[in-house]
Each structure stands twice: as C-alpha cells, then as structure tokens.
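Form 12-C: Joint structure prediction
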Amino acid sequence: MSDVSLDVRPGEVVGIIGPSGAGKSTLLRVIAGIESANSGQLNLCSHLYDFPCDPLRLHKPWPKTTLVFQSLCLWPHLSLRENVLMPLRQQMDMSKIERAEEYLEMFQIEKIGSRFPNQVSGGQRQLFALCRALSLDPDLLLLDEVTASLDVEHIRTLREVITDRSKQGVAIVFVSHSLGFVRKTANVVVFLDRGEIHENGPVSILSDPKTDRLKRFLFAADELNEIE
Amino acid sequence: MLKILSEHAGEFAGGLRTTLVICAWIWGLGIALGTPLGVAAGRYRVLVGMPVRAIGLGLSGIPIIVWLFWLHYPAQYMLGIVVDPKLTAIVALSTLNIFWVADIWRRCYEDCPMQYQLVAKVSGLNPGTIAWRITLPLVARHALPGILIVQINMLHASLFASFISVDELFRAAQRINSQIYKPVEIYTALAIFFLAVTIPVYLVANQIQKRFGRDYSET
Ligand SMILES: Nc1ncnc2c1ncn2[C@@H]1O[C@H](COP(=O)(O)OP(=O)(O)OP(=O)(O)O)[C@@H](O)[C@H]1O
Ligand SMILES: [Mg+2]
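Section 2 - Result
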C-alpha cells in the first residue's frame, strides 16, 4: 500500500470499496493495530503510533478499537454464545453482557447460541462475529466484508445498528462489495485499488465519480444491476 | 509356558510392580516437566525452542535400548558411580519423555493458527486469558494424541527396562566388557552410529513437514 491517508471522526461511517486484492482488509488491519506499515503514522483515539513498529509492543488500543475479520475467526472450541460473552466476562461489566443478549435477539440468533461455530450457516457465523464486536462497545468499529453472506433482512437490521451506533459517537469503518449498502449506510466513501486511494469523499462520488478508475468500477456494477 | 509363568509368578508380579512404579515416575515427570518446557519452546522459539529441538533430535536419534544401556554402564563407569538400575531407568526414560512431550507441544504451538489469538487480542482479552482459554485448548486438541502414543511407548520401554535391561542387559554388557574391555568406546560408537543414520532421516521428515504442515490461517 502507498500514500494512503484517512481521517475518521467520532460518529462517522466510512465505507471502503474496491476490487478484490485492493488492500481493503490490509488497511483495516493496519488501522486495528495488528499489522504494521513500512512508514507513516496512525493516530488512534489520541494515541500516536509511528510506523514501522512492532504492532505487539504498541500501546494496546483494544477493545476500544475492534475488528471483525473477513474470516470471522470465531473460536471453534467455544459455543457461539461463549464466543460473544467471554471477552465481556473478563471486563466484569454486567451491562455489556445484557447488551450482548439484546444484540443476539435483535439479529434473531439467540436460540442457536449453544451451538458451535461449525454447526451453523456462514451468515449466522457472521452475525455472531458482529455481535461479539458490537457488544464490546468500541469507539472505533472496523468491519471487514460486513454484508458478505447476509440476507436482505439482516442487512437492514445491520444498517439500523450501524446508524444507531454512529449517533452514539462510534466511528465505523466498513468494507463491503454491496454498493447499495454503502450508498445507504456510509457518510464517506473510499475507493481503494492496488493499495492506493483513487477517490474518496461523500456518498455522491458513487453517482458522480471523478476518476476513470472509479467510473469503470461503477460501470461494472451498473451492468450487474441491468442483469438483475 | 504356563508352568514357567506360574512358577515365577512372584517374580513376574514383582517385575510388573517395578514397571508400574518406574512408569508412573516417567509419565509424571515427562508430562509435568515436558508440558511447560514445550509451551516455553513454542513461545520463545529461538531461546527455548531451538535447544529443545536439538536435544529432542539427539535423543530420538538413539534407540531407547542403547540410551538405557549407555546410561547404565559407560556413563556410570566414566563418572565412577554406581546407581540403582531402577533409578537409572527412570532417569533415562523420563529424560526422553520430557523432551518428546515438549517437542509435541512445541510443534502444535507452532502450527496453531495465529488468527484466533489475533481476534482474542482485538476483543481485549488479556494475555493470560488468551493463553488459557484460547491457545491451550486449541493446541491441546492436536497435542494429546501424540502425547498418548509416547506414553504408551514409555510403558513398553519401562516394561522392557524392568524385565530385561536392568539385569540381563547389564550382565550382557559386563560379558562384552570382559571380552573386549572397552565399554565406553563400544556404546559411544554405537550411539554415534545410530545418530548418523537418524539425523538425515529426521531432516528429510522435517522438510516434508515444512512443505505440507505450514500455517493455513487467514485473517
Ligand atoms: N498474508 C499475505 N501475504 C502476502 N500477501 C498478501 C497476504 N494477504 C494479502 N496479501 C496481498 O495483499 C493484497 C491486499 O490484500 P487484501 O486482503 O487487503 O485485499 P482485499 O482488498 O481485502 O481483497 P478482498 O476483497 O478479496 O477481501 C493482495 O494483493 C493480496 O494478494
Ligand atoms: Mg478483504
């Protein structure tokens, strides 16, 4: 990646789009402080990190900053409910555990909490990973491929949750291949290709792109819409 | 056959008891010391991991019988001491068990996908909780079958040690020794021979494992 500069404020919702292999996940991992960059700076909740540095030796920004991985990474030896509750138990915060149960009900997955990650569908796994991150009540929430295997109704619930969280001052950066979702949910859109930000700005850049690269990308999306 | 068994029932029972006592020590020491050693080797790959690998390689290179034998006779001869054969067997086999168990843990730690620790970290779990609740259960799942097999081998070896090696092999060694009178050289040469044969095989196996056993985690 090169020359990437991004500024996210509390309550802001940033949607990252771009082709496969563009570096979207990598960018989220760098922001999350689990991967180092060769050079540059990261200012996370008033802590300044100078790259390159060993990410493990940083002042730890978690779980105030947290990330839902593209591969979800639910712990396979724990039940799904335990996947969500275990990080909260350590914080000994009963209100967060109650919030977690509310999130599970909101996404209608509270009944399958006793199963293990390999005993539910991909979309259900994604909802549990999402609930695990949401329940931590982060200030900066990073979501990779957040809509990947969700149905339209759950995506609607997710949009409501994201909007609600951002109203509470949570900054959210998500990656999605669903342009409709990005258009409806994000305040700021970032178009990433080959490790570079080609274009970023308000959602309007999706209807009025300035760069050729984004125009071509959106043209492919329009073709898909016509097929549908 | 049955006659022999019944006539020597007392000796067999004694042998079995000796075996079980020896074995209990070997199992206890191997798992109690091998586990923390292996965990340390997995965490500090250079500082602890490399020596554990090297010693484990050396010990695996020598067949148990030769190792047992060597500690019985040449080692004690060189040091000018005489140790109770049972104690020698416990020392010899526990050492093996400790390093074999440690090596299994080390390997499983190195194979454990990083992604589960990463997601634990971003979920704010502290290092202790990550080690106990995430890494250990995931690693133990893979380590246990191997450790069990090693324990069974240890049982066989201690049977062997109490029935044969302690008395019979000791006498055999003395007999050879009385004929050639160079016990240190004989057994040391034997150990080196076995090492020389085993190391290339070990290296090839290691290469194959590196090729096929790499970390498959995606994050
Ligand atoms: N572990 C890795 N080692 C080496 N290169 C990697 C690794 N992970 C990703 N890459 C490379 O880095 C680039 C960016 O990958 P990244 O995962 O950030 O893409 P992405 O934009 O998230 O793609 P997708 O939409 O498919 O998730 C890609 O070209 C990829 O091949
Ligand atoms: Mg990705």
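Section 3 - Comments
The radius of gyration of chain B is 21 Å. The mean pLDDT of chain B is 77.
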